[in-house]
Each structure stands twice: as structure tokens, then as C-alpha cells.
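Question (not urgent): is this output format expected?
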Amino acid sequence: MVGLPASDENWRAQCQVQFGMPPKTDLRRLAQHNGAVVGVIPVNRMTRLIQDLPGQPHIRELADIGADGRGAVWYEFRGSSQQGRRPRVWLKVQALLTLTCQRCLSDMLFLVNETVQFELFADENTANAVEAVDEGDPDAPEPLVADGPVDLVQMVEDQLILAVPYVPKHHACEPAKTSAGEPVEEVKRESPFKVLEGLKRGSK
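Got this back:
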């Protein structure tokens, strides 16, 4: 059965010290001080993520988080600054999302449990140049332009959008059928990469 990792229970408890939408944060300063920002956010506040998903449990306050943790998103931003390399930030995010299986068309639980590393840059040109050099290296950190306060919720939401499978399916289930007994055509879902690219174009 899909569920949140028991080994991270203490980590999630630490995140729950801060509930709700965090203020924008200067990630370069966070890295310079080897600092961290943790918290938990209701998934229903992430409108871009849930617009094509079935209903998620609604959480208004910390006490609303149930034993299974559905409806909550835990996150941690941890900065690091070492001599001889650019400042970096690690983002760890966990969430148990309700998706629609594209084979049987019923609800399915999907665990997001990811850690991604970002390398911070002051301008887009430098970031693009480094990205071109590192292209094809799966271990290279993601370039991130951080020339001022950054919206942490947007970063967490972007990571969740990318984590959701393009065509979610149960490991084993029967295809849904129409009243006439014919298999129901699988629902097409827009690529998350196209969604994020469109948002980037719209912000320019």
C-alpha cells in the first residue's frame, strides 16, 4: 500500500513547526549562512498542481492533517556555501497525492518523495551557459537564477508538477469500460513540461 515513509516521520514533525504559506526567501543568503527553511503546506493551495487532479483532502490548519498525511505537502530548503563553488540549495519534498488511474479511471494514491539540488546564479545568461555545459549529466545540479527573494511555494509546486507521472496507472487493474462493454479511451493529460514552459513564457 502506498504511504508516507515511516523513516521520515521525525523530519515531517520538524516541518510541521511551520504551517502555511512561507514568505519569499533570499536563497543566496540562505546558502551563505548554511541555513534551512522547513514547513508544511496544504496541497489545495497549489492551484496549478491540482487543476487536473481529482479532489484532494482539504486542510485549513495543522490539526486537519490525518494519520495518512493526505492533503499536506512537507518541504525543506537547505542551503550550502563552500569555498571554490557556487552556493547551492537542496529541496526535499514529500506528499501523498490522489491521482486518476488512466486505465481503470479510479482514484489512486501516488507518493512524491524527492530531493533536488539547485546551483544558484545571479543572472540568467550565466545559468544558461552552465546548463549547456552540464547537459546530459544526470548528477549535475539544476541551475536557478536567484537574484532576490524567491517564492518557495512556487518552487515546491513546480517540483510536484514534474513528479506527477504523465500517464498515472495502478500496477495492476482492469481497464474501465463503457455501458456497452467497450474499453474507455484513456484521458490525455497535458505534459507538465509544457505547463511549466508556458508559465515561464507568460512571466517574461
